[in-house]
Write a structure and sequence with these properties.
Structural class: alpha/beta
Helix content: 25-40%
Distance between the termini: 99 Å
Strand order of the largest sheet: 10-9-8-7-17-18-19
Low-confidence stretches: 168-198, 210-215, 465-505
Largest sheet: 7 strands, mixed
Shape: elongated
Number of strands: 19
Mean pLDDT: 76
Length: 505
């Protein structure tokens, strides 16, 4: 009995070593290249390694084996063909399932062969008797068959809705809700990428017949995007709009990232491929690390309390004062405080044509400092006209709110706008609002707006009530020349009584 026990022990050790040395099986799962490996473990589990974002661990079975699947690369050509062909996209879940089963089958066969060879060689080396070695091989085969049967009998499909997160994606549950909710929505969202890319194609067809506003050399076209939240689909939309509308520059009013981590910096590399100036202001989800990553792109112009002339327009940009992913820092989101923050930077604006900020509450502080303010943050598009004559355009989410789109019953639309400025006066003449259906929806909507009074007077916002003499405390005197914009004719100082000034303010 002791000899038999010794043979079984040596065979088990040899089989385990064989599995360890069996290596990794490379297999294609849909458009993703994966590496699969099987290792002995005290508890049965399946680990999906999505480096550098982190890992997902599923308690899929009770057998003492760990299946590790590593996401190594994406076949871009195959991914493109799957996304662009609706027929292939509908078959994608079945293709992934078949590829996954083929990979696991090849891994199991290799592991069994290596385990058997390990058991045979180990017993032969220790006992140096072929018959004893064959007995060890038989014992190892029985043990492996029993382990495989245990894994199959105890396989729990429901474990796929209860993953354990680690690494950066540990924040995923708080962003997208419960796993069960996502699984319940899977059927309606499984073709979301295909439909969004299809929307881009439909957008080409729609706008190809839409006459561009004042398509002459005297028009500056600006594409306004915001709140991409690391959704790669946004780059397809931006690239399509850039080409179709022949824009001269892009203004991004922040939240290109989600957590502002170094792992997300690779996402902004697409900026360098757009081949037009990309003006960026930091959002409350963008860290200084994110801002520096954007700065490294060859087309990028990062504005943080700075003014630059880009494609004929003088643009002032100010980064958001908050970084909300850092929970160790108290965030002051009071609208009045944000407006005061914006107002405190008005002296740095100069005679800018456009002001770019992330939050419209900060933008309110710049009322009267420029004819146009661009903002985002709320994921809802709207337009405000201040009494000073300043117009503020708040953009929706060009990334469809990223993963947050799964938090709500209704998907967040993908939105962007094309703004048309007169090249001589630098005033907004018109703008087109483009809206694409969000996750699971298939629609394209374009609405044109014409600025009713492009040459309107822009008067500075007074910081206090006018004095009895009619001068405004905190602003420059008439002799110094207030920052008024009144293109097309001379701009004499606006004369009004104190009561009119009170009503104006």
């Amino acid at each position: 009995m002791a000899r038999i026990a010794a043979v079984l022990l040596v065979a088990a050790v040899g089989a385990w070593l064989g599995i360890f040395l069996s290596g990794t099986v490379r297999t294609q799962v849909g458009p993703v290249e994966t590496g699969m490996s099987l290792r002995p473990a005290w508890g049965g589990e399946t680990v999906v390694d999505a480096s550098p974002l982190g890992t997902l661990t599923f308690r899929t079975h009770d057998a003492p084996l760990r299946l590790r699947i590593t996401l190594e690369n994406i076949d871009q050509e195959r991914a493109k063909s799957l996304l662009e062909d609706p027929r292939l996209a509908d078959r994608l879940p079945g293709v992934i399932e078949d590829d996954l089963l083929d990979g696991v089958r090849a891994l199991v066969i290799r592991s069994l062969l290596c385990a058997g060879a390990g058991a045979l060689l180990a017993v032969l080396m220790v006992f140096r008797r072929p018959k004893v070695a064959l007995m060890g091989l038989l014992a190892a085969s029985v043990a492996l068959a029993a382990t495989g049967a245990l894994a199959a009998l105890t396989f729990r499909p429901n474990s796929l809705v209860e993953p354990r997160y680690s690494g950066l994606i540990a924040a995923a549950p708080s962003l997208v809700g419960s796993a069960e909710s996502i699984v319940s929505k899977f059927e309606s969202y499984r073709s979301q990428l295909t439909k969004l890319v299809t929307n881009v194609s439909k957008l080409y067809d729609t706008v190809s017949n839409l006459p561009l506003y004042d398509a002459n050399p005297k028009t500056i076209r600006v594409l306004h995007v915001s709140d991409i939240h690391i959704n790669p689909i946004a780059w397809n939309v931006i690239r399509s709009l850039k080409d179709q509308f022949a824009v001269d520059l892009i203004v991004d009013t922040g939240d290109i990232s989600d957590h502002g981590t170094k792992a997300e910096n690779k996402f902004v590399d697409e900026i360098g491929t757009l081949k037009v100036p990309y003006v960026f202001v930091r959002g409350n989800h963008d860290s200084m690390t994110t801002q520096k990553a954007v700065e490294k792109q060859k087309n990028a112009i990062v504005l943080d309390d700075q003014t630059r002339k880009v494609a004929g327009l003088t643009i002032y940009g100010l980064g958001d004062p908050r970084f909300t992913p850092d929970k160790s820092v108290t965030v002051d989101g009071d609208p009045k405080a944000l407006a005061r923050f914006g107002r405190s930077h008005v002296p740095k604006v100069g005679k800018a044509d456009v002001i770019a900020v992330h939050d419209g509450e900060v933008g309110k502080g710049f009322s009267g400092a420029a004819p146009m303010i661009l903002a985002g943050h709320t994921h809802e598009r709207r337009t405000n006209m201040f009494p000073t004559g300043t117009r503020m355009l708040i953009q929706g989410s060009t990334g469809g709110a990223g993963l947050r789109a799964l938090e709500h019953a209704q998907p967040t639309p993908v939105q962007a706008s094309v703004l048309y400025f007169d090249k001589e006066t630098k005033r907004l003449q018109a703008w087109d609002d483009i809206t694409l259906g969000g996750l699971g929806e298939q629609s394209v909507y374009i609405q044109r707006h014409v600025e009713p009074d492009p040459q309107r007077m822009i008067s500075p916002e007074p910081t206090t009530a006018p004095s009895p003499t009619g001068t405004i405390t905190g602003t420059r005197s008439p002799a110094a020349g207030p920052p008024l914009w009144h293109q097309g004719r001379s701009s004499p100082m606006l004369q009004r009584s104190p009561t009119e000034g009170d009503r104006e303010s």
